[in-house]
Specification:
By secondary structure, this protein is of the alpha/beta class. The chain contains 15 helices and 29 strands. The protein folds into 3 domains: 2-163 and 274-510, TIM Barrel (Alpha-Beta Barrel); 169-271, no CATH class; 518-620, Immunoglobulin-like, CATH 2.60.40.
Length: 621
């Protein structure tokens, strides 16, 4: 144990020392992690619809190796707290016991360490796409985590960023050779305005240099050399070329397509020119290499809508081809488009062939002889449902017919054909459903535990792949970032907590009933009524057929916090697809309440406020 401990501390010391040493050498510097050879890749997931994803912010989950605890300040929400891959591995039994089967972890590469007294603990400020984050461990620690997860039949998904790097350079607007934060004007005869050379406002021409005589052409880009905070030129080295960036400054209007795609992300995150072949290849090679080093099973991709679709065609296809050739199939790539519009979010899942001229330009980047097709992502985070169902219905108690309307348009907005070499399931059937995550307030910040359980029942039984944010099962209730990124170890990892047990039970039912994973979906009741109306708050849907065989399930939810409700109105009852006479058992009820389908397919059920039922045929119980 002592020898292993010494080795861990030594490796952590080297990973911290390496960027400091490299900064002062002109002949280069050894990359210690390059000594780690690739592993044999394998396919660990048969059907992603069978999976339940658990999202973890590594820095906030568990501290398993004090040897990498440098720069931590646990009393401040925006600073490093000390979680690492070793700690996460030590808590895999807790995760496995919850019933989840896929682990999504925050970015693994070396990050800007701290910027303006805020730390890069989250991983979204890339500096070196080729090296591990020393706060979390080395490649061997990450490989150990993945191997241990696979031994428990838990897949691993890496969070990745392709849109930008951290604040690694500034625009030398006044040509004085260093970064300035300028305030100009007197406020009386001339207006006062502010220029920050790290994060200047968007200019469609590109950021311009200025002197007292006027504009002086494009502002030079100067990469920073500050090893103490890891503000260093980016790696791979091709990204240290200013031509690899759009250089138009901070996005001010996300509804302007030019700013959306070409602007720096607020906070000085420098926007890569993802139409360039060099950038496309750097991203493919860097991220495919992480898979080859660790055998992970998928990518959750950040800021998808800020990147051109041509990039997604190239990136997804070339990653799939490279990994499949080495034995990794059904590699899952789902994207984050923080937007409530289904047409915007779903566009990244459709097979989309551009014009012949555009396709020819895209294929000019291809050097393996396999031409680009219209395939894109396997799936996306279902943000439209977050706003429409999770927030509006389950938190705010609005009418449930809005969920039905959202679902009716799914086939119009999301891809209906599985990408070649993808997961083998059409994107419309593999959307990633969630109730909260690291970018939005936790569900309990805006509602109570009864509503939380109802929302969990919804996402664990509807079509798609459920995703649970770490700590939801312990009823963490933080508000907006960083308050929603709490330290998990403070919960004690209580496996008897009521919501832990509820998620565990839902995961078990999902495993036992194929309809909840692979059945086709049909709404059996939705209401546009509220207040005291008898069906206010009711939403019901059934799942059957498709790849589920004869498995059947009916889910009935009452999102009204005010009163009991039933799926019936003015004498018209709910009708279901189960044959007349079928006895349905509520497998969530303590007494296993039973309901019989009537001769015309009608089913009567009454649920109390914020109560749900999961009904399956008696013979399938």
């Amino acid at each position: 144990m002592k020898i292993a401990r010494i080795r861990r501390v030594f490796r952590s010391f080297l990973s911290i020392l390496a960027p400091l040493a490299c900064a002062g050498l002109s002949l280069g510097c050894m990359d210690f992690d390059a000594l780690d050879e690739p592993v044999k890749l394998a396919t660990h997931v048969t059907d992603w619809r069978d999976e339940v994803i658990y999202q973890v912010l590594v820095d906030r989950f568990e501290d398993g190796d004090v040897g990498n605890d440098f720069g931590i300040e646990r009393t401040a929400g925006a600073r490093w707290h000390g979680g690492d891959w070793a700690g996460l591995e030590q808590r895999l039994d807790y995760i496995d016991g919850l019933g989840v089967t896929a682990l999504w972890i925050s970015p693994v590469y070396r990050n800007v360490d701290t910027d303006a007294d805020v730390d890069g603990y989250h991983g979204y400020w890339p500096q070196d796409f080729t090296a591990p984050n020393p706060h979390f461990g080395d490649v061997m620690a990450l490989r150990s985590l993945v191997r241990a997860a696979h031994e428990r039949e838990i897949a691993v998904v890496l969070d990745v960023v392709t849109n930008h790097v951290g604040q690694l350079f500034y625009y030398d607007i006044n040509l004085n050779g260093h970064a300035d934060d300028q305030v100009r004007g007197g406020g009386e005869k001339s207006p006062i305005f502010h220029i920050n050379e790290h994060d200047p406002d968007f200019d469609p021409r590109g950021i311009q240099a200025e002197t007292s005589l006027g504009e002086a052409g494009p502002a030079p880009v100067i990469f920073k050399h500050e090893p103490g905070t890891n503000h260093m030129p980016p790696r791979p080295s091709v990204l240290a070329n200013p031509e690899m960036y759009n250089r138009r400054g901070r996005t001010l209007d996300f509804d302007d397509p030019d700013q959306l795609l070409h602007g720096d992300f607020p906070g000085g995150l420098k926007d890569l020119d993802t139409t360039r072949c060099e950038v496309k290849d750097a991203m493919v090679d860097s991220y495919a290499r992480w898979v080859e080093l660790t055998d992970v099973d998928g990518f959750r991709i950040d800021t998808v809508k800020h990147v051109e679709r041509e990039f997604w065609r190239y990136f997804t296809q070339k990653v799939r081809q490279r990994l499949a050739a080495k034995g990794k199939e059904r590699f899952f790539m789902f994207g984050e488009s923080f937007d409530g519009r289904p047409d915007v979010v779903g566009a990244y899942t459709k097979i989309e062939l551009p014009s012949d001229e555009q396709l020819s330009r895209e294929n000019s980047c291809v050097h393996d002889g396999r031409a680009i097709t219209g395939d894109q992502l396997d799936s996306v985070f279902h943000f439209p449902q977050y706003f429409t169902a999770i927030r509006d219905v389950f938190q705010h108690g609005l009418s449930t017919d809005r969920i039905e309307a959202l679902w009716q348009d799914r086939t119009k907005h999301y891809g209906s054909i599985a990408p070649e070499l993808g997961v083998g399931v059409a994107p419309v059937s593999a959307l990633v459903n969630f109730i909260d995550n690291h970018d939005v307030p936790r569900f309990l910040f805006g509602a109570g535990p009864e509503a939380l359980h109802l929302a969990l029942l919804f996402v664990m039984t509807e079509e798609g792949i459920p995703c649970i944010y770490y700590g939801t099962e312990q009823r963490l209730a933080g508000g907006n970032d960083p308050a929603n990124r709490e330290d998990m170890w403070l919960t004690g990892f209580d496996t008897e907590a009521p919501t832990y047990l509820f998620v565990q039970r839902l995961a078990e039912l999902r495993r036992n009933h194929a309809a909840l994973r692979k059945g086709e979906q049909r709404v059996t009741w939705a209401s546009n009524r509220g207040g005291d109306e008898p069906d206010a708050g009711i939403f019901a849907f059934e799942r059957s057929g498709g790849d589920a065989g004869d498995s059947y399930a009916l889910v009935v939810l009452n999102a009204s916090a005010a009163h009991a409700s039933s799926p019936a109105f003015q004498g018209a009852p709910m009708k279901v697809g189960a044959p007349p006479g079928t006895v349905l058992i509520d497998v969530l009820a303590a007494e296993g309440a039973s309901y019989t389908v009537g001769p015309a397919g009608e089913l009567a059920i009454t649920l109390g406020p914020l109560e749900g039922a999961l009904l399956v045929p008696q013979h399938q119980r």
